[in-house]
Amino acid sequence: MNKNYIIIILSVLLVIIFFYKREKEVLIQKEFVEVPTIKEVEKIQKVEVPIEKIKVIPKDKIKKEYIPVEVVKNQDKEVLNVVKVPCPEKGNTIVTAVIDKNKKEVDVYSKFESKKFELFYGNEFYVGNFIGVDINGNKDYMYNSGIRFGIIRYKDIYFNINVNVSHIDRSYLGLGGEIIFKF
Predict the structure, then answer these.
(1) Distance of alpha carbon 72 from alpha carbon 58, whole angstroms
(2) CA–CA dist 106, 28 (Å, integer)
(3) 139, 146 in Cβ contact below 8 A?
(4) pLDDT digit string (tens) for 58-100?
(5) What are phi and psi of 76, to 5 degrees?
(6) Cβ(34)–Cβ(107) below 8 Å
(7) Would you list the domain boundaries of the chain?
(8) What is the rounded (10 degree) CA torsion for 75, 76, 80, 85?
(9) What is d(CA 4, CA 148) in angstroms, rounded to the nearest whole number?
């Protein structure tokens, strides 16, 4: 059997395994985003109420990671409440309600906080066609496909196991490990 057919068959098998075992990607959101209002609620006319007696949380008493930077810097914005909404098996969403004393409106911000430590966090499939030069200056072409299995994640450091099929001048079935730093 031709070596190229073996590579294609193994690549197809890896793709099938990947899509069968696939999980959702871990969301990393380092900054707060303003949460949009639901369209049906936007249509309702707002009623004005006096805000002089509303209790706010002093910004200097709250951990900095719970407040958006633009709220900390703006003296007209005050924090009404901060909540942590658990997202099972994935982490937490921090939701911060802020009142703008000038606009006399409340804005809501959210930030997803993934778990700091996670086992078996996800899989991904990759295919590559690489062109390189060896030590002697000869061009090499490499075809590569495989599956990357997420084993351990601690904050932004990922430890993975790779299973791949490669072909340079002959076919290889490989097993390896990698450490990835995301920043």
Answers:
(1) 10
(2) 26
(3) no
(4) 998 998 888 888 899 999 999 999 998 887 667 788 999 999 8
(5) -85, -10
(6) yes
(7) 3-26+117-181, 33-40+50-114
(8) -80
(9) 22
Closest CA to 98 of 30, 34, 31: 34
Residue 2 CA: distances (Å) to CA of 7, 35, 170, 171: 9, 56, 11, 10
Short-list 42, 53, 69, CA closest to 101: 53
| Coil, strand or helix at 24 | coil
Write the DSSP symbol of residue 67.
Answer: S
Those residues with Cβ within 8 angstroms of residue 160's Cβ, 6 or more apart along the chain or in another chain: 148, 149, 150, 151, 177, 178, 179, 180
Answer for the pair 71, 60: CB distance below 8 angstroms, yes or no: no
100-149 tens-digit pLDDT: 888 888 889 988 877 777 777 777 777 777 777 777 877 777 777 888 88
What pTM value is reported for the model?
Answer: 0.53
Q: Return the closest-CA partner of residue 67 out of 54, 86, 52, 80.
A: 80
Q: Which residues pair with 180 in a beta bridge?
A: 158
Residue 109 carries which side chain, given as an amino acid letter?
Y
Q: Could you tell me which of 61, 99, 60 has the C-alpha nearest to residue 79?
A: 99
